[in-house]
Amino acid sequence: MQEYQHILLALDYSDHGAMVAGKARALADSYQAKLSIIHVLDNIPMPDTNYGTVIPVDKNSGYELLEKEKARFMQLGRQLRVEPDNRWLIWGVPKQEIVRIAEQERVDLIVLGSHGRHGLALLLGATANSVLHYAKCDVLAVRLKDG
User: What is the pLDDT of residue 124?
Assistant: First the structure.
């Protein structure tokens, strides 16, 4: 079995997020791998910025919704013992940004949650399904129980 050296956890702040994060942390510890985290903002409007889609977490934006997201993200990073340089808070389309950062950072395993939807939801392209098909590295989709 491949020894993973860099694991990327895609955070979505779902009710099951702690369970998925715990699995990613345990895998990183087991393989003595670097753990990075990414959260892609696709649910709050992007203000006019001069720094593009990657959000600097060390500067105050003055945008209240963004500051709340940053605080939550940084807290999770501390809880998971992820170095600040290995945290990615980005505006964009989750499936695209997760794959892009995984390639850019030479990640060899992406961990994310999956509801395992079927039928129309699958055809419309769930994030986990898209990441699974487009990532150039291994993907661990942790099955989430609905309800």
Answer: 36
